[in-house]
Amino acid sequence: MTNQNSNKIIHISLWVAQVLLAIMFIMAGVMKSSQPIEVLAESLPWVLSTPAALVRFIGVSELLGGLGLILPALLRIKPFLTVWAALGLALIMVLAAIFHIMEGEYSVIGMNFLFMAIAIFVAWGRSKKVVIQAK
């Protein structure tokens, strides 16, 4: 396989990863930043033992991170922000895993690490392998 074909496959893989992660984080962010805490607690029981301001902050961070995975790269306006968004979301997933360990919610930690790994893949790919140039 030539280097050009390899880069094309990685480029497509990165876009797939970016879109899937963005959808997940945008949905989670909208939910955490806009739903009443009581409604949110039906699917995320941990929000009842967490300050509402922190839940909202996490939601806004996830929403902005999800948008940051797509918009800068798609519009080619400051595409390096996509790398920073991916790194920020990876950090959020590390912090989420620590939080879930402290709460004894071990069943969700695997998903935290999966999303973290995908975000790191996006950060690596968009910073080293297939960099999107600004307009």
From TrEMBL:
It is found in: Membrane. The keyword Transcription does not apply. It is a multi-pass membrane protein. The chain crosses the membrane at residues 12-31, 51-74, 81-102, 108-125. It comes from Portibacter lacus. It comes from the Bacteria. This is DoxX family protein. The keyword Membrane applies. Coiled coil: none annotated. Pfam families: DoxX_2. Keywords: Membrane, Transmembrane, Transmembrane helix. One of its GO terms (cellular component) is membrane. InterPro entries: DoxX (IPR032808).
